[in-house]
Design a protein that fits this description.
Mean pLDDT: 82
Bound molecules: copper (II) ion
Number of helices: 1
CATH architecture of the largest domain: Sandwich
Largest sheet: 4 strands, mixed
Structural class: alpha/beta
Strand order of the largest sheet: 2-1-4-7
Radius of gyration: 31 Å
Length: 152
């Protein structure tokens, strides 16, 4: 092998080493970047702002799962009502309601389904929520509860 050929081979080898080093760096950057992105998005998705003040209530023939809800005046809340009853229920067809007249809220959950509403209580006080669909309607004490709006 000539001297020149040997030099060319050596140059080629250093070039290959450089390419390998660059490829390795690119892979490292990609892996770190992707895992960093996944890490951040995993944490970001765990704290959606809208879920901060959601109240989950279920309703069945024996009443609401929650009889008393405390909230702060001026802060928006989302109430998600779920009906536990099937559509074959003779009384109300499996639907239930969560309503407060004074705050103008009325949510009607379909049989074995949910519906929700977001509202902002603008005055402190104790408000009665009720269901006017099943068994005796709003006069039925088991289908009632209290929303307590606390002042600041
Ligand atoms: Cu009901």
């Amino acid at each position: 092998m000539s001297h020149k050929a040997r030099q060319r081979r050596a140059a080629l080898q250093t070039q290959r080493k450089k390419i390998r080093a660059i490829a390795f760096a690119v892979i490292v950057v990609l892996v770190v970047g992707v895992s960093g992105y996944l890490f951040v998005s995993a944490f970001a998705s765990k704290t959606p702002a809208s879920a901060a003040n959601t109240v989950d209530i279920s309703a069945a023939m024996d009443g609401f799962s929650t009889k008393e809800i405390r909230v702060k005046v001026g802060k928006p809340i989302t109430v998600r009502l779920t009906s536990m009853d099937s559509p074959y229920h003779t009384d109300g067809g499996g639907k239930h309601q969560w309503a407060i007249d004074e705050l103008g809220v009325s949510i009607i959950a379909p049989p074995q389904g949910s519906d929700s509403a977001t509202f902002t209580p603008d005055k402190p006080g104790i408000f009665t929520f009720y269901c006017d669909i099943c068994c005796g309607g709003r006069a039925n004490p088991t289908m009632q509860g209290k929303l307590i709006v606390e002042g600041v």
